Amino acid sequence: MSGSEPPYTLDPFEDFCAISGHQTILLDDKLYITPGFGRVTISPTVNRTASSPWVRVIDLSRSFSLDQTASVSSVLPTSIIPVNIPNVQASAFWFDPPSSSIIYAQGVPTVEGGVIRDPSLRSFGFRGKSWIGRYDTQNQSFAPWQEVDTPFPRQNGLASSLRKVFDPIKRKGYMYGGSVQPDDGSTRIPNRQLLTYDVATMTWTNGTTEPGVFDVFGTAVPYRTGRGQLLSLIFGGNLNGAQLNMDVIYIHDTESDTWHQQRTNGPTPNGRQHFCATPITSADQSSMQIIVYGGLGSNPYSDIHSLSIPSFTWTRLEATSPLTIPGPSSRIQPTCNIVNNHILAIFGGRNLADGDTAHCDWNQNALFMYNLNERQWIFNYNASDKAAYRVPEDVYRVIGGNEYGNATLMAPSDGFDTPQLAELFAFGPQISPTIESGGPEPNPPEAGQTPRNVAAIVGGVIGGVIVVIALVLLPLLYKQFRKKKYQLYESPPNGLPPTPGVEEGTQPGVEQSLPIAEERLRLFGL
Question: What is the mean pLDDT of residues 476-489?
Fold first, then answer.
């Protein structure tokens, strides 16, 4: 490659039809997007498979229209992200607050597709290696990312899974199930694995997922209990080769390394894979909603559902989404994040309307936003609109309280399935992340800090009772007291493609490129 030639043969925005298998993190109003699997445009009716080797950035501190996402998009330069960063999907992509670093590791190799000009710089990762990106919070910028040693004894290949959680207090990341790509490039192997990454020691260890073999394509969402334990809530996808229904949540207590199951209530979504999920917490932290979008089951889905915790109650927010901007239509392997406190941001994934990527996300118009407060899709994004999240009315009608919290249903309607679960969820949520699972929690307590001071809460409650009694005794307020109950808030607070390096031939129209639920994909001409 001559010094004047760019290292890439394609433009990251103009030439890409779709991106999937990527991961996202939101830092300081910027959405960072890992490399992933791409569809690149050859002509208006033809696209082919390739890698997306860049770390993309969308600047959400600026207002824009969603048909102009490229105007606020960029890629991290090669001075920060070397050309030989691994081209992988379903990787670990975590932010560690104490070291102010991004961790990029594991993942299954993509089809390179000739995007990187120099073949010697095409990389698909190595066992025992990870990449670290140091982040300067004052300048909101990265130092050059570096490959580091992260030993993993007896690992026989890189692991991939969309079921991932990171604990910023314990500084540990967890990957559940998924598959391993052997070093020799042979067929990926499903694994009953629980991979744990320790940031402090920079090492990986391998355990076992007690329920069985979880596939790559479900999700895991973090939930911090009132006592400080981090629980992983795991659902969707396949278990032991069979499609999971969404009426059972598998729960891993990361502190005790114990497993539980809990049945859900309410109208259950259809079983599915390749969806995205992200948590958001009510203003008073009395409940957490896990927002679920899209995916593929017996059909492609474009719906939105909410799973409220700790009552484990499903609520459908939207039956379908619009087929074109501002809606995302039906998609597989998008990512979800909460931005500006109350907006569900969906990025990427492959549009299944009329076939796999028959409709392209031209010029990176692959960002879609749903205002959870207004229950509507957004066309014009207002960066200054940072209103607090309000629990949807359809949700609080079931779990009690109001749009600012005060949930009264603090357990499943039929009770928890075991006494151990009842104890785990006894104090409700402590702090819940508001970004894509696997990313950091907002303002987590420092290590060693008590997550929730139960004694203080009890004391506060007793003090509150005394005040209320005093008010009751005041004649002028007696009627008002009888008329309405005390409320906390009186006013609102302001696939994965084949083995690496193997290119697929260009074909007109759409193309089979993900070996995911292949029998189902054939139903849609994929």
Answer: 32
How confident is the model over 451-476, as pLDDT tens digits? Answer: 333 333 334 434 443 333 333 333 33
Q: How many helices (H) and strands (E) does the chain have?
A: 5, 39
Q: What is the DSSP letter of 396?
A: H
Alpha-carbon gap, residue 323 to 448, rounded angstroms: 48
Other Cβ atoms closer than 10 A to 500:
20
The model's pTM: 0.83
Task: Measure the CA–CA gap between 212 and 475, rounded to whole angstroms.
Answer: 63
Tokens matching residue 308 = 């409220």
CA 73 remoteness from chain centre: 20
Yes or no: say if 521 and 330 are a contact pair by the CB < 8 Å rule: no
Reported as half-sphere exposure (CB side, CA atoms, 13 A), residue 402 has a value of 10
- Residue 480 gets which letter from DSSP? H
User: Angle formed by the axes of helices 475-483 and 454-472, to 10°?
Assistant: 120
Cβ atoms 282, 405 nearer than 8 A: yes
For residue 206, what is the enclosing H or E element? Answer: strand 203-207
Instruction: Give the CB-side neighbour count of residue 521, counting CA atoms within 13 A.
Output: 21
Residue 335 structure tokens: 């990512």
Architecture (CATH level 2) of domain 16-444+495-522: 6 Propeller (2.120)
Count Cβ atoms below 10 Å from residue 27 Cβ, excluding itself: 18
Q: How far is CA 420 from CA 23, 210, 259, 322, 423, in A?
A: 33, 16, 10, 43, 5
Sequence-ordered list of residues with C-beta below 8 angstroms from that of 25, at least 6 positions apart, any chain: 31, 32, 93, 94, 95, 102, 435, 436, 439, 440
> 465: Cβ–Cβ under 8 A, 6 or more apart, which residues?
none
